[in-house]
From TrEMBL:
Protein transport as UniProt keyword: no
InterPro entries xrefs: ADH-like_N, ER, GroES-like_sf, NAD(P)-bd_dom_sf, Quin_OxRdtase/zeta-crystal_CS, RTN4IP1, YIM1/Zinc_Alcohol_DH_Fams
Keyword set, alphabetical order: Membrane, Mitochondrion, Mitochondrion outer membrane, NADP, Neurogenesis, Nucleotide-binding, Oxidoreductase, Transit peptide, Ubiquinone biosynthesis
Statement: the UniProt record of this protein carries the keyword Nucleotide-binding: yes
Gene: LOC101172548
Source species of the chain: Oryzias latipes
UniProt region (Disordered), positions on chain: 416-445
Reaction catalysis annotation: 3-demethylubiquinone-10 + NADPH + 2 H(+) = 3-demethylubiquinol-10 + NADP(+); 3-demethylubiquinone-10 + NADH + 2 H(+) = 3-demethylubiquinol-10 + NAD(+); a 3-demethylubiquinone + NADH + 2 H(+) = a 3-demethylubiquinol + NAD(+); a 3-demethylubiquinone + NADPH + 2 H(+) = a 3-demethylubiquinol + NADP(+)
Pathway: Cofactor biosynthesis; ubiquinone biosynthesis
Protein family membership: Belongs to the zinc-containing alcohol dehydrogenase family. Quinone oxidoreductase subfamily.
GO biological process: nervous system development; ubiquinone biosynthetic process
GO terms of molecular function: nucleotide binding; oxidoreductase activity; zinc ion binding
Domain Enoyl reductase (ER): 77-419
Protein name (database record): NAD(P)H oxidoreductase RTN4IP1, mitochondrial
Location in or out of the cell: Mitochondrion matrix; Mitochondrion outer membrane
Amino acid sequence: MLSEQNRYCRQLEHGFNRVFFRAMASIRFLWLLNAKTANAMKTLVRSGICACSRKRNICSSPSRLQNMSAWVIDQFGSNGVLRFTEEISLPVINVSSEVMIKVNAASLNPLDVAMRGGYGATLLNLRRDPSSVLSSSNEFPLILGRDVSGTVVDCGSGVTHFVPGDEVWAAIPPWKQGSLAEYVKLTEYEVSHKPKSLSHAEAASIPYVASTALSALVNAGGLCRESCADKRVLITGASGGVGTFSIQLLKAWGAHVTVTCSQNAEGLVRGLGADEVVDYTAEDAPQQLELMPKFDVILDNVGGDTEQWAMGLLKPWSGAKYVTLVSPLLLNTDSMGLVDGTFQAGCALHNKAFENMLSRGVFYRWAFYAPDGPALDDISTLVDGGKILPVVEAQFPFSQVPQAFQKLEHGHARGKTVVKVSEEDDSQGETVESEQGMQEKAQGS
Ligand SMILES: NC(=O)C1=CN([C@@H]2O[C@H](COP(=O)(O)OP(=O)(O)OC[C@H]3O[C@@H](n4cnc5c(N)ncnc54)[C@H](OP(=O)(O)O)[C@@H]3O)[C@@H](O)[C@H]2O)C=CC1
C-alpha cells in the first residue's frame, strides 16, 4: 500500500511540476510576444498595408463590406454595458490558417456573463489578437459569445480542410472576439464541420460545453471511449450546459453515470441517460451518495464546498480522479496580478493535490476549456449517429441579446441558451425542441 502511495505521489509531483513550469514559461513567452508584436501588428493592420490582407481577395459576401453588426461592450459591468452597433470592423484574415465564418447562431455560457463583468481580463489580454482590438492594453470593443454555428465565407491560403460554403461549428477561445456578431474569424484547427442532422441553432448549443467536457473528462479525468465500460462517474451540477452534454458523452462511451441536480431536473437528466440521480437539495443527499459504490471519476461543475464531501466518494488508492471546472486561477490573476495570482493558484493546486494524494491516493485536478476542432469532428459523428442531442432551453433573436444574458444570469439552467444571429433559413428548417428530442431518444433506447 505504501509503495502504491509513493508511486502516485511521485507521478503527481512530476506531472504537476511539468505543467506548472510549462504554464509559467508560456505565460512569460506570451507576455513578451504580445508586448513586442502588438504595436507592430496594430500599425500594419490599421494602416491597411498588412501584406496578407492586401494580397487576399476577401470572399464574395463580406468583400464590399467594411463593417458588420455586433453586440459589444466598451467597459465591464452589468447588462447595461451591452451595446448593439453596425459599425464594428469586419475581421481580416491575416494568417494563412484562418477561416472567416458568417455566424448563423451563437450560444451563451456562464463565462460570457462573467467576462461581461471583467472576469479573466488579466490573463486573457495576454493572448488577444492585436488586430481585433484598439490596443494591447485595451480589449474594447469586446465581442462576447463562445459558440458559433455558421458558414465559411473565406479561407486563408494555407487552409486545407474547409472551403467557402462549408457549414461549420466551433468553440471560440475566450481571448478571441466572439460570435455575437455577423462574422467571426478562427484558425482552421478550432473549426469543425457541423453535424448534418442539426439546425444551426441546435449546433450552436454544443461546441463550448463539448470542448470543456472533453478537456475535463479526457485530458484531466483520463477517460476515453475504450476505457469507459467499467467506469463509474459522478457529475455534479448535471442539469446545465456542461452536465447535460457530459452525461450523453459518457453514456455513449459506456460508463455508469450518477448525477446530482435539483429535483425538477430529474426527468431531463434521466432522459439523457443518467443511471442514478441524487437531488442535491435533499437533506440526506450526501448519505445517498455515500451508500453507493465508489466512483472512478468525479466531474465537478459546482465548486464551492463540493470537494470537501466529494473526495470521500472516490475509490481510494486506485488512480481515481476528482476534476473541477471551478478553479480560482482567473479570479486570482484579476485580483492579484498575473505573477502573484498565478503563483497563488499554483500553490493552492499543489497543496490540494498533495493533500488528497497522501490522505486518499486520489488525484485532484483543475480542468479548463481547450480549443480542439478535430475533437469536435468526433462529437459530430456521435451527434449524427443520434448518441448526443442538443439541449436547447431557450432561443433569442439577435435583437434580444441583453434578454438572453438576463436569462443566463437568472441561473438554474436546463441546457443551453441560444442566440439566432442570422434569420436566414436554417439548414434543418426548424429547431427540434430539446424535450421532444429527449423523448425520442428515451423511446429509442
Ligand atoms: N474552467 C473552464 O474552462 C470552464 C468552467 N466552466 C464552469 O463550469 C460550471 C458549469 O458550467 P455550465 O454547465 O455551463 O453551467 P450552467 O449554468 O449551464 O449549469 C449549472 C447547473 O448547476 C446546477 N446547480 C447549481 N448548484 C448546484 C449544486 N449545488 N448541485 C448540483 N447542481 C447545481 C444549476 O441548476 P439549479 O441551480 O437549478 O440546481 C444548473 O443547472 C460553471 O461554474 C462554469 O463557470 C464552464 C466551462 C468552462
